[in-house]
Amino acid sequence: DGKRVYAGFGGGQLVALTKDGKRIWEAYVGEFPILFEVDAKENVYVAGKNRELFSFDSQGKLRWRYRIPDHVVTGGAMSADGRLIVVGTVGSWMYAFSDEGRLLWRRRANFGALGMTADGRWIVDGERNVYDSGGTIAWSSSEKMLASGIAISRDGMYVAGVYGDSSIRLFRREP
Q: Cα dist. 129→41, 44, 54, 101, 162 in Å?
């Protein structure tokens, strides 16, 4: 809504500012945030190389944290309503959490990046595997070139992937 600005820095510092630049709150998470999402209630979700997923409320108070036992977080995504948060690790694990910090599921997945439709119904990994919100593979690509970045259109019809060969590929979902 343009009322706040959120920022994360290399030393693990998080800051929430008013649109005029006045500090609302500050917190530390130990490492540069790789996943940094804010839901409609202004709860903040952050994960990075420190192997933890944090959630802070609108005033910067820690709501919950979850230690990810496998490896560092390399990517993540959140549904538009904030009810589903998914993170992936360098050790090829994908975790899904509720907005209250409950682990919903964990599965092996080889990916370079993660994306999610706004409604949280579909999750796409860097290999172009598509999972439902329960973590079950709904579709899998035969091409195994990893995308390092993924973006999904608001309507869920298009997926864009950024690849190591300096290409950007656009995929259209069949109705």
A: 31, 27, 27, 25, 15
DSSP bridge partners of 37:
45
Which value, in Å, is the radius of gyration of the alpha carbons in the chain? Answer: 16
Terminal C-alpha separation, the chain: 32
| pTM (2 d.p.) | 0.88
Separation between Cα atoms, residue 55 and residue 38, nearest integer Å: 9
CB atoms within 10 A of CB 151: 15
pLDDT digits (tens, 9 = 90+) for 122-152: 998 888 788 999 999 988 877 667 788 888 8
Q: Across the chain, what does the average pLDDT equal? A: 90
Reading the block at residue 155, the tokens are 């309507």
Cβ-based neighbours of 65, under 8 Å, separated by 6 or more: 52, 53, 54, 55, 101
Output the CA torsion sign for 90, 149, 13, 53: negative
CB atoms within 10 A of CB 124: 27
Classify residue 75 as exposed, middle or buried by CB count within 10 Å of its CB (0-12, 13-18, 19+).
buried
Model pLDDT for residues 18-49, shown as the tens digit of each residue = 999 999 999 999 988 989 999 999 999 999 88
Instruction: For 59-76, write each residue's pLDDT tens digit.
Output: 999 999 999 988 888 889
